[in-house]
């Protein structure tokens, strides 16, 4: 579980740091927060503590009940210096918002509070997100400080352009939105994009096979898992295309979405794009059967009588047909949504029958996981064995699946850089 240390300075944009923290935790990261005294005038420490489940530190003089560790980690036997312990255990240190004053301190090596002392002691990736009035941001002193930090290897996020803190002000200086902050941190954690340049094709959602003009045979898949995979792959640098079957979720920028309805349409869309992809992840719930004929209008009860008999025929096995034409180096990942005993055994069988690199098995009989739920619990089945991902957010499950893809791609000579 990646550990993010978040430093929050005093500025009106500090409220965005709360949403960043929520998103980071949802994505499976562990977060500790340090604030300047001025930051507490905008967002209270109790808000961050309530979200992270960890105490917020403001000065070097206050004891840390967690002794410098992140939530879930074992406590050390002694209490270390907080500004050293936090950055030693963090995988990345993000300062957002970073005020002009803090940027000046960082550029000149000043360490007069816990936030700047931690930055000076930081040997992990340091990311700063400036946020301030446009006149302050464009001032030569601020620009010189940013240039100094960049020259030292600090990642400086570009502020946005738009309305600023005071009424009527407009210009450069807006803190990037929380999803952008998280994407930047995850890009740094992934080494600048562990999937950089990889072409990833993902199917998501559930197909609908028409009975008549208003009725269909479908399933309960919402597309959350597929969309989480797409956004996680995009954050790691991949070029992502999603074939979305009846998904009403928000769309992330930078991802190509192809909307389809039926299994046949999904098969066609995937087939058209398969040869160009490096990784295929079939997360969609594709109907195994469809009505042999769909009625052109709406079937009326007085037309059908007491019973309505439908003749169902098999749909195309999309994943098997694509696996038969895979080229060397392509990675194929399937999903198996099962119910009750035998789920894992079926996943192993599917792995072998369809000649896949991995199968993600989830038992949808469990409460609060699977279809149309925020959480999931899965087993990632490969030729090397099974990796259990306990119940967690679908964003965290997506990260675990991609980690598995990365390990497989290294052995298959897929062009991961």
TrEMBL record:
Essential cofactor(s): Mg(2+); FMN
GO cellular component, one term: phosphopantothenoylcysteine decarboxylase complex
GO molecular function terms attached to this record: FMN binding; metal ion binding; phosphopantothenate--cysteine ligase activity; phosphopantothenoylcysteine decarboxylase activity
Note on cofactor: Binds 1 FMN per subunit.
Record: residues binding CTP: 288, 298, 335, 350, 354
Pfam families assigned to the protein according to its UniProt record, in alphabetical order: DFP, Flavoprotein
EC number of the protein: 4.1.1.36, 6.3.2.5
Keyword Lyase: yes
Function according to Swiss-Prot or TrEMBL: Catalyzes two sequential steps in the biosynthesis of coenzyme A. In the first step cysteine is conjugated to 4'-phosphopantothenate to form 4-phosphopantothenoylcysteine. In the second step the latter compound is decarboxylated to form 4'-phosphopantotheine. Catalyzes two steps in the biosynthesis of coenzyme A. In the first step cysteine is conjugated to 4'-phosphopantothenate to form 4-phosphopantothenoylcysteine, in the latter compound is decarboxylated to form 4'-phosphopantotheine.
Descriptive protein name: Coenzyme A biosynthesis bifunctional protein CoaBC
């Amino acid at each position: 579980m990646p550990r993010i240390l978040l430093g929050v300075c005093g500025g009106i944009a500090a409220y965005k740091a709360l949403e960043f923290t929520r998103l980071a935790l949802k994505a499976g990261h562990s977060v500790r927060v340090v604030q300047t005294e001025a930051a507490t005038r905008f967002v209270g420490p109790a808000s961050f503590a309530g979200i992270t489940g960890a105490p917020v530190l403001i000065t070097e003089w206050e004891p840390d009940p967690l002794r410098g560790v992140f939530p879930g980690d074992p406590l050390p036997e002694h209490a270390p210096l907080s500004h050293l312990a936090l950055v030693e255990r963090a995988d990345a240190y993000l300062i957002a918002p970073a005020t002009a004053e803090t940027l000046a301190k960082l550029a000149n090596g000043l360490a007069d509070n816990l936030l700047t002392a931690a930055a000076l002691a930081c040997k992990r990736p340091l990311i700063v997100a400036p946020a301030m009035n446009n006149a302050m941001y464009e001032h030569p002193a601020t620009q010189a400080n940013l240039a100094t930090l960049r020259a030292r290897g600090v990642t400086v996020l570009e502020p946005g352009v738009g309305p600023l803190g005071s009424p009527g002000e407009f210009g450069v200086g807006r803190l990037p939105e929380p999803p952008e902050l998280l994407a930047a941190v995850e890009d740094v954690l992934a080494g600048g994009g562990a999937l950089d340049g990889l072409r990833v094709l993902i199917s998501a959602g559930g197909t609908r096979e028409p009975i008549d003009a208003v009725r269909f045979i479908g399933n309960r898949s919402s597309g959350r898992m597929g969309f989480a995979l797409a956004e996680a792959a995009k954050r790691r640098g991949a070029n992502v295309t999603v074939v979305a079957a009846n998904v009403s979720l928000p769309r992330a920028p930078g991802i190509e979405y192809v909307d389809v309805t039926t299994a046949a349409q999904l098969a066609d869309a995937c087939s058209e794009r398969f040869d160009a992809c490096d990784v295929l992840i079939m997360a969609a719930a594709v109907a195994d059967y469809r009505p042999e004929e769909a009625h052109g209008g709406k079937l009326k009860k007085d037309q059908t009588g007491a019973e309505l008999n439908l003749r169902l025929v098999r749909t195309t096995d999309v994943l098997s047909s694509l696996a038969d034409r895979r080229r060397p180096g392509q990675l194929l990942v399937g999903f198996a949504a099962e119910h009750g005993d035998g789920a894992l055994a079926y996943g192993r069988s599917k792995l072998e029958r369809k000649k896949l690199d991995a199968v993600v098995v989830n038992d949808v009989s469990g409460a609060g996981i699977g279809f149309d739920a925020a959480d999931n619990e899965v087993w990632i089945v490969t030729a090397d064995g099974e990796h259990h991902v306990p119940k967690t957010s679908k964003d965290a499950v997506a990260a675990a699946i991609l980690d598995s893809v990365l390990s497989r791609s290294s052995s298959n000579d897929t062009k991961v850089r």
